[in-house]
Specification:
By secondary structure, the protein is an alpha/beta fold. It contains 16 helices and 9 strands. The longest helix is centred in the middle third of the chain and has 25 residues. The structure holds coproporphyrinogen III.
Length: about 350
């Protein structure tokens, strides 16, 4: 079958004249229309579980900018919630969860086959989107990678150095491995269901992979991604997977091949010239403009965007930021980035 969607072509290894583009957190607080829909929904989690409104905020940046992909509006912490953790968001601070510190805490979690009761509204959002998106727009589903999700489940919140998760994996590796295994199983089911509902690509967010070093990186970032991707490929051989081991640095080298990911998403800690030579040589890459350019704009935004497009121009590339856009970004700078990528 000839593929016309640009992102799917890049993911299949094609080098395009102009890279397709989307942006992490493209539906978010920097957009006034997002803030309006979020207040209509009540709070962030109510928005995630309201399929109509979640689909609406997913579509907002597509209408405004015409990105080549849209990413399902949800959160990586919905999976732990579906496994039975309490989850709430403190405005201005971030997520809070009940913690997993002991075998007793772990034993209270549900099995991975019981998550769909909570997550059904998310699959409904995907179904609405696959009907309503423009035909040239690719729909991306996602989940958090096990290590990153575990850091929140163990600590009960975001942590600057993932200290509590490191402490648990070092002091009680048997318990920590059970958490990772449960998350692997849950993630396989969660992503498969998103694909069944219409997701055309899925992305695994390992936002805290950078704090894993040496053998820990292999055991908790690489191996779980490899298992999840192998299981997804067995069920859905034609659905591409993007892996984002954020902060991996030199461990980006070979990550796509070792895990079976079709594309490796790059953060802004690696230079495009280095990544073209060492990572893109194996296949498609995504990234990696520093998100602060969406706040500051101007000539620096244009120059850095062009550098990235040029450096990755000889191979398959999807343009994106190195991390999510922040609430203080100026929506006009997003347009400037898109125009620069598309050569307008
Ligand atoms: O990219 C997208 O537009 C799709 C939706 C999406 C959200 N979160 C919506 C969201 C995705 C893919 C995520 C992933 C996510 N969530 C990650 C991995 C990527 C990353 O950013 O590193 C992580 C670590 C989380 C957990 C999470 N969710 C945190 C730590 C926070 C609070 C920080 C913040 O930005 O407020 C969230 C909240 C969240 N998730 C918001 C959005 C739009 C902001 C909520 C709001 O409207 O107040």
């Amino acid at each position: 079958m000839t593929q016309s969607k640009k992102i799917l072509r890049a993911l299949a290894g094609e080098t395009l004249d102009t890279p397709p583009i989307w942006m992490m957190r493209q539906a978010g607080r920097y957009l006034p229309e997002y803030r309006a829909t979020r207040s209509q929904a009540g709070d962030f989690l109510s928005l995630c579980y309201n399929s109509e409104l979640a689909a609406e905020v997913t579509l907002q940046p597509i209408r405004r900018y015409g990105f080549d992909a849209s990413i399902l509006f949800a959160d990586i912490l919905l999976l732990p919630q579906a496994l039975g953790a309490d989850l709430w968001f403190v405005t201005g601070e971030g997520p809070r969860l009940s913690t997993i510190q002991t075998q007793e805490d772990f034993d209270k979690l549900k099995s991975a086959s019981d998550i769909d009761e909570v997550l059904n509204p998310i699959y409904e959002t995907v179904r609405i989107l696959s009907r309503e998106l423009p035909e040239e727009t690719t729909l991306i589903g996602f989940a958090g990678a096990p290590w990153t999700v575990a850091t929140y489940m163990v600590a009960g919140r975001g942590t600057p150095d993932q200290g509590p998760a490191h402490a648990l994996k070092d002091s009680n590796p048997a318990l920590f491995d059970q958490i990772i295994e449960r998350l692997i199983e849950g993630t396989i089911d969660y992503l498969s269901r998103q694909i069944d509902a219409g997701a055309e690509v899925v992305k695994l967010f390992d936002s805290w992979a950078g704090s894993l070093k040496g053998a820990d990186f292999d055991r908790y970032a690489l191996e779980p991604a490899k298992k999840i991707i192998a299981a997804l490929k067995a069920r859905h051989p034609n659905v591409p997977v993007i892996a984002f081991p954020r902060g991996a640095g030199e461990r980006y080298i070979g990550f796509g091949q070792a895990t079976g990911a079709d594309c490796v998403a790059l953060d802004d800690g690696v230079t495009p010239v280095w990544a073209a030579e060492h990572v893109q040589k194996d296949g498609c890459v995504q990234g990696n403009l520093k998100s602060s350019h969406m706040v500051t704009g101007g000539q620096a935004l244009i120059d850095e965007t062009r550098k990235i497009v040029d450096a990755f121009g000889k191979g398959p590339h999807i343009f994106n930021l190195g991390h999510g856009i922040t609430p203080d970004a100026d929506p006009e700078n997003v347009q400037l980035m898109i125009d620069t990528v598309r050569g307008k």
